Every structure is written in structure tokens, then in C-alpha cells.
Amino acid sequence: RMVAGLGGPRDVFAARGVHLPQAPVWRPLPSPRDGVVSAMDTRAIGLAVVALGGGRARTGDVIDHRVGLSDVRGVGARVARGEPLAIVHAASVEHAQAALRDLAAAICVADAAQPLPVVHARIDA
Description:
Largest sheet: 3 strands, antiparallel
Order of helices and strands: HEEHEEEHE
Structural class: alpha+beta
Shape: globular
Oligomer: single chain
Distance between the termini: 38 Å
Strand order of the largest sheet: 1-5-3
Number of strands: 6
Radius of gyration: 17 Å
Number of helices: 3
């Protein structure tokens, strides 16, 4: 709806490769075990996308719109060993392998979900 509201096609994500270019390399990140996605280092995940070329490290960096992540399992999702935690879309096998290493370190699968605090921090002025 947001893309359509800005004048883009309504089915931008429905038909892969029609409106957006596709990365030549796709690799799943398999879950190392049965369990629940219990934590994610979102900064590390964002930096992995930047390293793929899907974001800017510096002003003026060109973004490769083909690369990034899809089908990312969220915190609390039950997963079986080998089931994809995310799909990496990369420009090369080398970039995909580096992103898989970064993501494996950034996504934790545990026996049970870890309850997250409702309030992360309180700031008193």
C-alpha cells in the first residue's frame, strides 16, 4: 500500500522480477537446530545488508536494489533444524557466504522464547 500510495505498482512484491531486479545468487540461512528464534542483533543484520550493497556505508555509495534479505523469521517463530531463518539475495557467491556468516552470528535459536521487556529503558530528564 505504501508503494502504491507513492505512485508505484500495487503488486510490486507479488511478482518477483517484474518490477524489481533480482539478485543472481540466493542462499538460505538454515536453522542450526530445532527451537524458537529467541533474539536478533538487528544492527548486525543491517550491517550485513549494507555489506551486500543494499545500503550505504557512506554518502554517495550506490545501492544495489537486487540484494538484501527476504523471508526473515521473527523473534518467537518456531523453527526446525535446517529450515530457513532468512534468504540472502546477493550479487555473488562470496557476498552471500559472508552475509550467511554474519546472519548466523546475529540470529539466536534457543529451546524457548525469551520474554522481552515491555519497556526497554527509561530516560529521566
